[in-house]
Amino acid sequence: MNQSEQLINMLLEVFNIKSEEITDDATPDDIESWTSISHMDLMARFEEKFGLELDVEEITEMDSIGAIKETLKNHGIEV
């Protein structure tokens, strides 16, 4: 499974959503289950799965699927 597929699987699992809901424009306003707790769960999974150390600024700036992808790309993750 490549890194992009791993990201999608994490989003599906953490947010308990359908794949059609995963768009770059999707935000917590669009995904009801995207709460502060699920956001931190996702960040912890990123750190564990991809070996990242995210700082507070990065975590708070990941406020859309597109922003998540951009941050991961900045860390060399191919999503």
TrEMBL record:
It comes from Promethearchaeum syntrophicum. Residues 1-76 form the Carrier domain. InterPro entries: ACP-like_sf (IPR036736), PP-bd_ACP (IPR009081). It holds the Pfam family PP-binding. This is Acyl carrier protein.
